[in-house]
């Protein structure tokens, strides 16, 4: 009889140890508070948190300007997935992995989803007076094909005859440059952006000057520069103007 009682007591002790010591009553937690400002045109997109569609003003798919605030709790050993999908094709456009340790990196989440490109940045169309031209630049895939390790480059905007219109000291991957403004002079004449290493007159890659032909529109121009390969040769394009969508 004493042996049976002893076994019961030991069983209870081991049970208590397993539930109270091995599994803490309270897990460490942090609040997630993510301010989302995005834009998508023409695609209709959907935000999903751990696979569940996010409702914005009663809608689970959205286009044009997209604004919402997500609030949830993240446990110490938990990983949450915030994803962006094309609502028609269900293709995943972007994925953000959020956990207890990196939660501060996701206070603000900004994006532009445009045909052929996804930008993780915030942008406002600059005010440009009548009769003026304004340019801003961003270079999100800088180094993708050139292998350049530069964080930003210098750009010199010129007329066809070589006259300098504006200089941009820091064209980088994450943010549009400050707008530079000059007098409009032609609806048909192109302008050219020459790309250099910061603070130099050396091409940012190679030995030949890299010139990007850009169409100038009167008013604001927010140009996305892109490295591409054409017949195995590096080319920089400036065909996408975010201002057209704002």
Can you describe this structure?
- With 246 residues, the protein is mainly β.
- The chain has 2 domains: 91 residues, Immunoglobulin-like; 113 residues, Sandwich (Immunoglobulin-like).
- Helix content is 8%, strand content 50%.
- Strands 1, 2, 3, 4, 5, 6 and 7 form a 7-stranded mixed beta sheet that branches.
- A hairpin with a 2-residue loop joins strand 14 and strand 15.
- The longest helix has 19 residues.
- It is elongated, with a radius of gyration of 26 Å.
- 22% of the residues are buried.
Portion in helices: under 10%
Described by strand count, sense and barrel closure, the largest sheet is:
7 strands, mixed
> Low-confidence parts lasting 5 or more residues at pLDDT below 50?
1-25
- The structure class reads mainly beta
Cα distance, first to last residue? 84 Å
Beta-strand share of residues = over 45%
What is the count of DSSP helices, taking H or I runs of 4+ residues? 1
Instruction: Output the helix-strand order.
Output: HEEEEEEEEEEEEEEE
The second-level CATH architecture of the largest domain is Sandwich
Average pLDDT:
88
CATH domain class of the largest domain = Mainly Beta
What's the CATH topology label of the largest domain?
Immunoglobulin-like
Count structural domains.
Answer: 2
Report the C-alpha radius of gyration, rounded: 26 Å
Can I get a quick summary?
The chain is mainly beta. Helix content is 8%, strand content 50%.
Describe the protein's topology.
Blueprint: H1 2-20, E1 29-49, E2 52-53, E3 62-75, E4 79-86, E5 92-99, E6 108-114, E7 117-119, E8 132-138, E9 152-158, E10 164-172, E11 180-183, E12 191-196, E13 210-214, E14 219-230, E15 233-241
